[in-house]
Every structure is written in structure tokens, then in C-alpha cells.
Amino acid sequence: MKLRIPTIVGLAVLVSGVAVAQTDVIAQRKAMLKQMGDSTKPIAAMMKGEAKFDQAVVQKSLASIADDAKKLPALFPANSKTGGDTAALPKIWDDKAKFDDLFAKLAAAATAAQGSIKDEASLKASMGSVFGTCKSCHDDFRAKKS
């Protein structure tokens, strides 16, 4: 009986550790996705004419988007389908290749935009592919807010 108690305790610690890790990865991806959304806000304001074009802000925002897009696929492991108040749809894991490809496309689009945006006109011309990729992911893989 003495051997079983440590085994049971060890198993309980392991299970609780998995639950914490699952919640942690969901929290990490939510934070990174929020950061990505925050990076789009100044660009959107410039495109709407609500803010003056600022090349440095555009470059910094696009670099952040590209960097986050490269990191995010790893934050959707199979054991993080539920919990942590996630808006991730099960479709992510059913079509993980498409989901991961959207992040690769987003990183490439943001990087390409960094090289082509020089003024307000080029900003408006270049951001469609970046924002369009964001929209595709939201439409296909994120639960709608009610």
C-alpha cells in the first residue's frame, strides 16, 4: 500500500501539470493573438485616415505580425482544443495543414508588405493580403463572438 500512495500522488501531479500546461499554451496564444491584433490597429487607423502615415510604426507593426505568425502554429498543440476560454474551433486540428499554412501566408504577406510600403498609397495597396489572411483565419477557425 505504501508504494501506491506515491504513485497516485505522482499521477495526480502529472495530470494537474498537463492541465496547467494546456491552459498555459492557450493563455500564450491568446496573448500573442491579442498582440497581433494590437499591431494591426495603428495600420488600420492610417488606412482609414484616422492617423497620419508613419513608416516606422508600419514597419514595427508588420515585423511584429510576421514574427507572431511564425510562432503561433506551435501554440495550437492537439492537447489544447478546449479550456482556457478558447475561441479556437475544432476545425483547426481537423485541418491543421491549412491552418498552419495561413500563418505561413500571413508571415510572408507581412514581410512582403514591409518591403513594399513606402507611403500611404502603397500602404493601402499592400495591406489587403495581410488583412485578408487574418480574415480567412477568423472566418474558418475562430468561434464567432455572440
TrEMBL record:
Pfam families: Cytochrom_C_2. SUPFAM superfamilies: Cytochromes. Heme c binds at C134, C137, H138. One of its GO terms (molecular function) is electron transfer activity. PROSITE patterns: CYTCII. It comes from the Bacteria. GO terms for biological process: electron transport chain. Keywords: Electron transport, Heme, Iron, Metal-binding, Signal, Transport. Binds 1 heme group per subunit. One of its GO terms (cellular component) is periplasmic space. Residues 1-21 form the signal peptide. This is Cytochrome c556. It comes from Rhodopseudomonas pentothenatexigens.
